[in-house]
Structures are given as structure tokens and as C-alpha cells.
TrEMBL record:
This is Methyltransferase FkbM domain-containing protein. GO terms for cellular component: endoplasmic reticulum membrane; Golgi apparatus; late endosome membrane; plasma membrane. Residues 50-186 form the Methyltransferase FkbM domain. InterPro entries: EGF_Rcpt_Signaling_Reg, FkbM_mtfrase, SAM-dependent_MTases_sf. GO terms for biological process: endoplasmic reticulum to Golgi vesicle-mediated transport; endosomal transport. NCBIfam families: fkbM_fam. It comes from hydrocarbon metagenome. It holds the Pfam family Methyltransf_21. PANTHER family: PROTEIN STAR.
């Protein structure tokens, strides 16, 4: 499915200038603004899953959703130090878990936002010059079952420093539907997996972030996108 020319025009003329208005988002690249504004038109009481939530505030993709729009959800963080802050900062259910493709144990580099599993195929290829802890790993499928996650989820955010493919390539997409997804540095394998499971790439920040909407929600997304930008307090300049 291709985005219509009018939607492409809206993205090119309206979205990127709003990313510069930092007061509208706390996330690194406007992911939260995209979700609460363009995808859901300021919908209240949504549901999110935030994988790699860090301390729950700094560059968070879900903090505004929770605090301003009363969304509920689950924040997952592997780093024990960051998790302590996460529990203090957020009202969402907070889970201290290290996600991977298999259950077992792994070495985890504690490098703040850049921390993650140490492995040759991950961003953290070694544990030099950092604090390393041994952590238990868990699959996303098992986490969802244990936490009784609903089978339809409004927003899925995942940023785990190169472990995204190992976590998602074995995930049961047939049992769970995400209306929208933001993911950092998806591999070509992951992009193919998303496409095969009905996810439409709405936009991509090169070498950084991809924004997806599920095909079953695409029509509503288009409606919400136009309605959001047509509100009186947002003015647009069409070229």
C-alpha cells in the first residue's frame, strides 16, 4: 500500500517543522508527538509497550502519553540502575527484564542509554571500559504471556541497541497487533518481517528511526492525521 500524494505532502510540509518545537515532545525524534498527535489525534486512555524505557523520562517515547493523555502500559528496562529510576518516574507497570531471542543469561553493558547485551551482532560488541553485569534473558512472547498483554496494542516502542532483530524475528505477530510502531535502526530482515505482517512504513529518519502503522489501522490513521492538523490551534502553510 502506498501513501497518497496528499498525505505525503502533509508529511513534507507540516511534520518536520513541528519536530523542531521541543515543547511538543520529549522523545529524541518526535516519536511521542507522532503517536499522540498524528496517529491518534490526542486520543486518551491508550495502551503502550515501551521496550528499552531507560529512566522513563529522558528522551522517552511514552512519558507524555502517560502523563498528558492518561495512557497505560508496560515499560521494560534491562539495566538495574536505570530500572530503579524508572519505577520512581512512571505510573506504568515497570518490568526489569532483558529481552533476547532465547531464554538464558547474557552479559549486559551498563552504558546508560547506549547499554545493552554484549554480543558480536549487537551494538555493544565488548565490555571494555564499562560496567558489565550478568542478566537473565527472556523472550518477548513469554513476557507478553506473563504480563497478560492485550492482543491489540496501540503503540509499540522498541530501542534496545541492536537486539531488536533477535527479539522480534521469533515474535508471534499473528497473536498480537500493534496499531503503530517506532523502532531504531531496523535491519533489512526486520523491515521484511514488518512488511510480511502488514505493517506500512510511514516514514524513516535515515540511519535512525522507522515509523510504522498496521494496514488495518491505516484508514483511521489518515483521518486522524488530517483532523489533528486541522485543529484551530495549529496553523499550517501549504505550498
Amino acid at each position: 500500500m502506498k501513501i497518497t500524494k496528499s498525505i505525503t505532502k502533509l508529511i513534507n510540509t507540516a511534520i518536520y517543522p513541528f519536530f523542531e518545537r521541543k515543547s511538543l515532545h520529549v522523545s529524541q525524534a518526535g516519536q511521542d508527538f507522532w503517536v499522540y498527535g498524528e496517529v491518534f489525534n490526542e486520543m486518551r486512555n491508550g495502551y503502550f509497550i515501551d521496550i528499552g524505557a531507560h529512566d522513563g523520562i529522558y528522551l522517552s517515547n511514552t512519558f507524555i502519553l502517560e502523563r498528558k493523555y492518561d495512557w497505560k502500559g508496560i515499560c521494560v528496562e534491562a539495566n538495574p540502575s536505570s530500572f530503579k529510576l524508572l519505577k520512581k518516574n512512571r505510573r506504568a507497570i515497570c518490568v526489569n527484564a532483558c529481552l533476547d531471542g532465547t531464554e538464558g543469561f547474557a552479559d549486559f553493558a551498563r552504558r546508560g542509554l547506549m547499554g545493552g547485551i554484549i554480543a558480536p551482532d549487537k551494538f555493544n560488541k565488548d565490555g571494555d571500559s564499562c560496567d558489565v553485569v550478568r542478566v537473565k534473558t527472556q523472550t518477548l512472547n513469554n513476557l507478553f504471556r506473563e504480563m497478560d498483554v492485550p492482543h491489540e496494542i496501540d503503540y509499540f516502542s522498541i530501542d534496545i541497541e541492536g537486539a531488536e532483530e533477535s527479539v522480534l524475528k521469533g515474535f508471534n505477530f499473528k497473536d498480537y497487533l500493534f496499531k503503530c510502531i517506532t523502532i531504531e535502526h531496523p535491519t533489512n530482515t526486520l523491515k521484511k518481517i514488518f512488511t510480511e505482517n502488514g505493517y506500512i512504513l510511514i516514514k524513516e529518519i535515515p540511519f535512525f528511526e522507522c515509523f510504522y502503522v498496521h494496514e488495518s489501522f491505516f484508514g483511521q490513521y489518515c483521518t486522524n492525521l488530517f483532523d489533528f492538523y486541522n485543529k484551530k490551534y495549529l496553523t499550517m502553510r501549504w505550498k
